[in-house]
Each structure stands twice: as C-alpha cells, then as structure tokens.
Amino acid sequence: MTNTEELDALDRSILRILQEDGRASYSEIARRIGVPESTVRLRVKKLAEKGVIRKFAALINPFKAGYSIVAFIAVDAEPGKVKEAAERLSKLPEVDVLGIATGAHDILMQVTVRDLKELEDFLIEKLGSIDGIKSTETSILTSVRKWGYARVF
C-alpha cells in the first residue's frame, strides 16, 4: 500500500477495533461490524502484508514496569551525517521512536530509561559514541496526560 492509497470504511473499522483492543477475536470484530469472520481474517492479513499493520504488540505503561524516565531528545548532526546517525541511534534499545525531522533539529526521538543515572549514561556513553552528533537537547516528561498510538482515521 502506498501513501496515496486510501483505506476503505471496512478496513478503518477493523483497525479502529484492533487499536481499542488488540486481543479482539476475528469473530468479535465481525460481529461488531456486521461482516463474516472470513472477511475480517482476510482483511487483517492483507493489512499486515501491505504494512498498514506493522505488528501486534502490548502497549506497556513504562511507569508501571519499572521505568521512571521518558524523555524526548532532539539531536543535531553534522552535515551529511544525519542518516548515518539516525540509523545508529535507531538500534539503541532505549529508543522507542525516532525520526529525521524538519525544523530546529535534525533528529527527534523518544527514549525510556529506568532512572536519571541510566539517562545520564545513555546521553554521555551511547550518544557520545555516535559519530556525527553535534549536540542534543533533552526534555523529560514530568507526567503523561495521553498515551496513544498512530490514528489513521
């Protein structure tokens, strides 16, 4: 599926239900939207094959799982080294979300760590060892008001 292809109403309904409850069975989804279970099964398979559904996973609350720090880090890279730095950063286990950005910074990422010491180690040892990074700016969340996921409808 390319960026220009549209999802139809049935695909959107299936995705909406799966985002609300990723454990919903095909039969439950079918009952809720009024189509045969086989239709739901086929649509989910196609959505996964096309990459619309990236994976099925549990959404973990890091604060309940022993992690006390969620931070957003803006990274500035040397000219010509943005993609290389982003690739290396994306491999770090602390990094939850990472993208090359427009605006004031080259790379934006979200990281989750257990405590301030682990954040310090991440910033100094891990980011400091990546060639091409000029500077970083870190903001720590003090509370979370909404923890969602990508909505496509």
Please tell me about this protein's structure.
The chain has 153 residues and is of the alpha+beta class. 35% of the residues lie in helices and 20% in strands. It is built from five helices and four strands. The chain has helices at 9-20, 26-33, 37-49, 82-90, 116-126, and strands spanning 69-77, 95-100, 107-113, 133-140. A four-stranded antiparallel β-sheet has the order 2-3-1-4. α2 (26-33) packs across α3 (37-49). The longest helix is centred in the N-terminal third of the chain and has 13 residues, at 37-49.
Short synopsis of the structure:
With about 150 residues, the chain is of the alpha+beta class.
Task: Please summarize the sheet with the most strands.
Answer: 4 strands, antiparallel
Strand proportion, as a percent range, falls in: 15-25%
First CA to last CA: what distance?
A: 16 Å
Average pLDDT, to the nearest integer? Answer: 92
Structural class: alpha+beta
| Number of helices, counting only DSSP H or I runs of 4 residues or more | 5
Low-confidence stretches: none
Order of helices and strands: HHHEHEEHE
| Tally of strands | 4
**Spatial shape:** elongated
CA radius of gyration is 19 Å
In the sheet with the most strands, the strands line up as 2-3-1-4
Task: Bin the helical content.
Answer: 25-40%
